[in-house]
Amino acid sequence: MSKILIYPTNSLVLADLVDRFGHEPLTIPQEIRKKVTSVGLDSPPLNITPEDPKIGLKYAAVEVPSGVRGRMSLIGPLLERADAAVVVSDPEATFGCMGCARTNELVNFLIRAKKIPMLELPYPTSEDDARDFVYKIAEFLQSSEVLKHE
Known about the structure:
53% of the residues lie in helices and 13% in strands. By secondary structure, it is α/β, with parallel strands linked by helices. The protein has one domain (3-145). Strand 1, helix 1 (12-20) and strand 2 (24-26) form a beta-alpha-beta unit. Helix 3 (51-57) crosses helix 4 (66-81) and helix 4 runs parallel beside helix 6. The longest helix is centred in the middle third of the chain and has 16 residues, at 66-81. It holds the Pfam family DUF2112. This is Methanogenesis marker 5 protein. InterPro entries: Methan_mark_5. It comes from Candidatus Argoarchaeum ethanivorans.
């Protein structure tokens, strides 16, 4: 089973597709769940540790807006664990909006810099596009370049 970073990282549709093909989807909700269910942390919104901002600084400079660093403190460790990535460009907000254009640019850059197998698809706008979208993801998840990480 390979670890597949999905982007947008909160897309339930992508997470389900990756899971159905026997891989582990790397998503933001998993990371947030760890934070809100960990013993010793206060309830939201005070559920960060002093280490979290330091994690974000690993991926973005101190001059970068705090929201980018905060998002990167969650997304960065996912990216480090990823064996491959499925990226959807220009998704509708209801598909899994990440809420920050600068974070989007940084994450896409870091995925490419890591040089892992990556499938980048445009958001489907018709039923035929949606069918092709699912087919291409299935084909990618069953490809030898993804399976070799198992």
